[in-house]
Here is the input.
Amino acid sequence: MKLKRQSAVLAVVAASAVMLAACGSDNNSGVAGAQAAGKSANVACGGKNTLKASGSTAQANAMSRFTQAFGATCSDQDINYNGNGSGAGVKEFTGKQTDFAGSDSALSAEKGEIEKAKQRCGAPAWNLPMVFGPIAITYKLDGVDDLALDGKTLAGIFSGKITKWNAPEIAKLNAGKKLPDQKITVIFRSDESGTTDNFQKYLKTAGGWDKGTGKSFNGGVGEGAKGNDGTSQALKNAKGGITYNEWSFAQAQKLNVAKIVNSGGGQPVELNAASAAKAVEAAKFKDEGSKDLELNLDSIYGTKTAGAYPLMLATYEIACSKYPDADTGKAVKAFLSVAAQGGQEGLDQNGYVKLPKQFSDKLLASINAIQ
Amino acid sequence: MTTTELERPARPPVFHHLSTGRKARNHLATVLVSLAFLIALVPLVWLLATVVIKGWRALVSPDWFTHSLKGVLPDQFAGGIYHALYGSLAQALVCAVIAVPIGILAAIYLVEYGRGWLARLTTFMVDILSGVPSIVAALFIFALWISTFGLEQSAFAVSLALVLLMLPVVVRSCEEMLRLVPQELREASYALGIPKWKTIVRVVLPTALSGIVTGSMLALARVLGETAPVLVLVGYSQSINFNIFDGNMTSLPLFIYNQFTNPTAAGQLRIWGAALTLILLVMLFNLIATVISRFSAIKTK
Here is the structure.
C-alpha cells in the first residue's frame, strides 16, 4: 500500500519531468524587437554541427551577436562559447577541448603557447583580431561633464603623482573649464584582468608609465574593486573618483567618459564608434603580409591619427591554420567569416567597435586561408 | 472531612504571587529572544524580497520557462532559461541516481553490520568527504575524468563531482534515520525466524523510509545550487542540449555566472530571474520532500 503511494509520487515527478522535456524550444525567432542579423556574403556553411570555443569574457557579448548571425546564415549550425577567461581559453584550445580560443593577448612564445598550439593543430595557429572593445576612462566629478585627459596626465593620476582635480596638468588640457579643488580618488580593478593589462600598456606607450604592466594594477594608489561591475559601482559612490571600464559598462551605467588627447596631440577625442574605428583602421600588424594577424598594439595605443581613440582592448580568435579534421575546419571558417561580416551589425550597441571595411578585408583573407 | 478539604494542597503553594522583578526579567528575556529571532529573519526576508522584486518580471515572460537563449542578443528582452533549467535538473537527478543508492547502502552497513576498524574508517572518511569544498571535488573529477582518462568536458562529469558532495549528506541522514528504528522491531522480526537481510529490507527500511526520502531530497536541493563544478567541468551553451555525455550544457548557476559579463538591463533581469528560479526550484524540492514524508510516514495507530 505504502509503496504504491510512493510510486504514485514518483510517477508524478517523472511525468512532470517528461512534460518539461517536451515543451522546450530553441526557436526564438519572431521575437518582438529582434533585429535581423546582417547578411553575410560568400560563406560556405557546413562541416561540424556544433562548434565549441571558450576564453575571453571581454568578447562574450560580441560572441552572442556572432552566434545569432551564424544561426541566421547557416541554419542547423550552432556554436557554444564559454567565457571563462583568456588563459583558460588558450589551455582548453591547446588541450583539444575546444575548436578555437578567444584571448585578450596573442599566443605567447615565452609560455610555449605557440609550440603547444602547433602540436595541437599539426600546423601553426593564427591570431585573428576580431573584437575590439574600447576602454573608457570614467569619472565622477560634480559640475564637470566634459573632461579631457592625455596619456601623461593619466599616468600621473593613476600613479599618485597628480592628486587634485585642479592640478596644473589637468587644467592645461581643460582650458576655460572650472575644475574643483578636490582630491582625486583612483579606483582600480582588484582582480586580474585583461582590461587592466591593456590600460597599463597604453599608459606605458602614451604616458611614460614606469610601474610595469600585467594583469594586476601596479599604480600603488587608490582603492580596488572587483570586476567592471565593482569599479562602476565604486565610482558612483566616490566623490571625485576616476577609473577605467569596458565601454559597454560605461554605457549601461551611464557614467561620464573622459575625452582623450592621443599621442598626436591635437583635439581631445570623444569615445564613439567612429573615433574607435579610426584607431582600428590605423592599426599595424607585427608581421605585415603574414596570415597571422598579431597586432602591433603600440600602433593603436600610440596612434597619432587625428580623431582616433587610442585606448582599447583587442580580442583575438585563435584558430588553427589547418585543422586535423576537415569538418571542424570548414565550420570554424564559416563561423569566422560570418563574424567578420554579418556579425558586425549592431556591435557598437554592446560597446564594441564595428570593424572598418579595410580591416575586415584583411581578416577575411586570413579566414579564407584556413583549411 | 469534606471533599474540599481533601482537595486543598497539604502545603500552601510557595510562589503564589510572582514578584515584579521576576515578571520584568521574564518579559525582558521574551523580548530579547523574539528580537534575536527577528534579526535572524532579516537577512532571509531581505534576500527573498530583493530577488523577487528584481526577478519576477523575468518569470512572467511567456518564453521564460519554455525557450532557450539561442539567437537572442545580449540586450534583448527575449528567450528564457529552459536550457539551464533542464541542465540543472538533469545533472542533479543523475547525481541522485548514483549517490542515493550508494549512500543508503553505506548507511545500512554502518548501522546494521559495521563493527571494528572498517566501520570506523568509513565514518571517518564520510566526515572528511563532507568537509571537502566543492571546488576541490570539481578539480578532483577534472584531474581524473579529463586529464587522466582524456574524456571531454560534459554534464556527466559535473554529476560525478556533485556525487562527491551529495554522498556524505545522504550517508549521514540515512544513518540517523536507521538508528531511530527501535531495536524491538528488529528483535521481534528475528524472533519469528526471519533472516537479517530480510529484516532490513522488510522492516527496517520501510520504517525509516520517510526520513530517508526527506534527507535525500534535501541533499538534492543542496547540490542544485553548486557553482564550482559547473565552472570547471562543463561549458556554457545558449541552446538546449539533452545529451549529458557530450557537449556544453548550461545549468542555472552557470547561466547566472555567464550573464555577469552582460551589463545591459536585459542581462541584469536574466540574472535575477535565474536566481529566483533557482530559489523556487529548491523550494519545490523541499515541498516534495515534505509531501513524500507525509504520505509515507508509518501510521502509529
Summary: Chain A touches chain B through 54 residues (CB under 8 Å). Chain A has a mean pLDDT of 86. The longest helix of chain A spans residues 2-22. DSSP finds 13 helices and 13 strands in chain A.
